[in-house]
Amino acid sequence: MPVALGAQVTPRDTTRPPVVRAPIPLPPDSQATLDTATVRQRRDSIRADSIKADTLRAPLARAEAPMLPEINGGWQWERDEILSTGALTLGELLERLPAAVRFRPSWIHSPEAVSFLGDPGAVRVFLDGVEMDAIDPRTGAVMDLEDIPLWTLEQVRVERGARELRVHLRTWRYDRTIPFTRVDVGTGDEATNLYRAFFAKRYHNGAALQTAFQQFSTADPRVGLPGQNSGGRSLALMVRTGWAHGAWSVDGTLVQDARTRNPEIAYTTRTIGGDRILGSPAADSIPALRGTRRTAYLRGAYGDPESGPWLQAIASTLGFRESTGQGKDRGGIPVTHQDSLRGFAVADTARSRAEYVVAGGLTRWGARLSGTARTRVFEGRTVTSPAVRASFDTRFGAVAARAERNGLNNAASVEAGLSALPLSWISVAAVAERTQGANDGTPSGTAARAEVGVRHHRAWISAGGLYRDSTLVAVPWVFYSNFTP
Length: 485
Prior knowledge:
Layout: H1 2-7, H2 30-50, E1 75-78, H3 79-84, H4 90-94, E2 100-103, E3 113-116, E4 123-127, E5 130-131, E6 153-160, E7 165-171, E8 180-188, E9 192-202, E10 207-220, E11 230-245, E12 248-261, E13 271-272, E14 275-276, E15 289-304, E16 307-322, H5 337-343, E17 349-364, E18 367-378, E19 381-394, E20 397-405, E21 412-423, E22 426-436, E23 445-456, E24 459-468
Parallel strand pairs: 4-7
Antiparallel strand pairs: 1-6, 2-3, 4-5, 6-7, 8-9, 9-10, 10-11, 11-12, 12-15, 13-14, 15-16, 16-17, 17-18, 18-19, 19-20, 20-21, 21-22, 22-23, 23-24
């Protein structure tokens, strides 16, 4: 029986109960702390990778570039516009102005002149406030515009007066610490090749360094001597260094152009197979030239001529050296091309001229007041040319006045102009000038111009008139082999 009773006992359950895992909640701010840390990490990495110090520095000084009232607001070209026009010389820009006519016997590397109202000597060029005098004895009193390095400029601004053109050029400047480089390469017909390079950098202490060069060459067999090409080549260089901080700046600039020009004859007097095409066998050759023109200046400045008070002092030197290696004897009136090449050539020449400029003024609320004293020292002479200006410009028109005495011939001139814009699509402008007192035989006289223009979309269509008394005009000697001054 006990055995039977033992068989009826139920054994104990040996299966363990399942483990109960209760969730443990996170602290209330754990997720917020995690999110904040992630954002902070991202924010720090962004700052380290992309936020840099300011790369802009105070710009170097720029010269005063006034403008007379015009119906279209004035004639000027900025750097991008200059390089995109396709113009390679200053004359190719100026010929677009009314009453301006450009003359060049052939293509690139030929001497170039622009006449205003029929006077090639009525074009004055100012580079950073320094007047570019015609010191090449081959050109007389006419500036050879082929010598102006257009590629070094950041702005061309023109005062189209009643009697003369005053062209104000501002050289290229740079204002960032990030280095700037640019290279242009071009080629074309007539063996034309162009190489141009720029480099500029501003430093964190305000210092500046700019360098640029251009090599340009061409050859034209159509107007060269038998068996030779006309044209030539040039190697130009620009170097600028300086410092600017706030409104103060000081800089030194050198621009040099070494040019070689081959002899050239008139296109209509060339021969094919020994037969002359057109023209008589007169001597009208333009002789060869190997010369170097150099412009250098040191400038100290305060302020900007475009805003507020400003003052500048400039010491500059202009130099021209010819090393063609031809004789100095003119040999009488030439008869043949070879006579022209021998007789018209001048002796090896080196000329220089110092020019000192002090200028200052005030620009505010549309009004401009300025004064300039320009002193030239050359060939044992010292001459000073003072000038004062005043202008006021509004959206409805402008008025301007200028008075200047030419220290070279003691001529005094007074000029005034005004423009009105009664409607957004119509404008009128007029300028008058009176010159007197010259001691070089130039007669006193009055000149004036007036225009009215209508704007159609972005284009101005204008008509007007020009008036000038009798005057003496300059002769570009380089185009006249038998000219005797």
